Amino acid sequence: MLGTQLRRLREELGITREAAGDAIRASHAKISRLELGRVGFKERDIADLLTLYGVDDAEERDRWMQLVRQANEPNWWHRYTDVLPSWFELYLRLEQAASIIRSYQVQFVPGLLQSEQYARAVIVQGHGGEDAEEIDRRVNLRMTRQKLLTEPDAPRFWAVIDEAALRRAFGSPAVMQEQIGHLLELAEIPSVTIQVLPFSSGGHAAAGGPFTVLRFAERDLPDIVYLEQLTSAMYLEKRPEVEVYLRTMERITVQAETPNASKDMLRSLLDEL
After folding, report:
1. Do residues 186 and 113 lie in contact, with contact meaning Cβ atoms separated by under 8 Å?
2. pTM of the model
3. What average pLDDT does range 170-186 have in this prediction?
């Protein structure tokens, strides 16, 4: 939010990123990162930018500085930095700020919906070479992250899960039973919507792979598409690119079972295990 408001001020005055960078003794690239919220904010830098942008009122400058201090406060995941990739830390920041999160997954149950033992099985699959303590920390990180769904100001979370993710076993049959039961419990939370995309729907618009779309209550913040890879991630925010994923999401929600029919399908899968 802070970065977006800084960008709006700069653009309204027709000031280039280069000129803004000069004002804080930095490059235009740093201004870009500041405006995208991808680096920390130094109070001196923001004060200099406010002066450049003509923000002279003492009360308004104080409001800006309060935003800077809030933006720089350590988040709960900082204690997990030893097991948290920097590219995923940015996603956690966006996830915490989002008002709506829409996700399509084909390989796994979405991280926010994973049961503890299923999460452990998935993490061991990807980090089997790590010792037990590191595995435990990764599991704890994922479980702590899920508290987002039950907070008073929880975002709306809408997941479309491919049937393949539900039939691909991670762990024992008991682990999969627990996971599907966990999905049925979460589906009762008013802010959570779960749809299953069955094999019977045939080919679908999201054949390119999993993705997540984040939307924010702040009007000036653009929708962001998150694409995770093995060792990195992509964050798309250019409107033409985002529109493609939004249309794709709309199409697969139509192809998927309705939320109520998805619950019936989950119960049937549970009976099969």
Report:
1. yes
2. 0.83
3. 96
Asked whether 141 and 80 are in contact (CB, 8 A), the reply is yes
pLDDT of 205 above 80: no
Describe the crossing of helices 28-35 and 2-12 by its angle, rounded to 10 degrees.
130
Lowest average pLDDT, out of 112-116, 175-179, 235-239, goes to 235-239
Supply 194's token pair: 């779960």
List the domains of the chain with CATH numbers: 2-72 (1.10.260.40), 82-272 (3.30.870)
Give the pair of three-digit tokens for residue 239. Answer: 């409107």
- Measure the CA–CA gap between 183 and 74, rounded to whole angstroms: 31
Both tokens of 83, joined, read 């097991």
- Long-range own/partner contacts, residues 94-99 (CB < 8 A, 24 or more apart): 94/214, 94/224, 94/226, 94/235, 95/145, 95/148, 95/155, 95/214, 96/148, 97/1, 97/216, 97/221, 98/155, 98/214, 98/215, 98/216, 99/155, 99/156, 99/215, 99/216, 99/217
d(CA 170, CA 120): 9
Q: What is the average per-residue pLDDT within 26-31?
A: 91
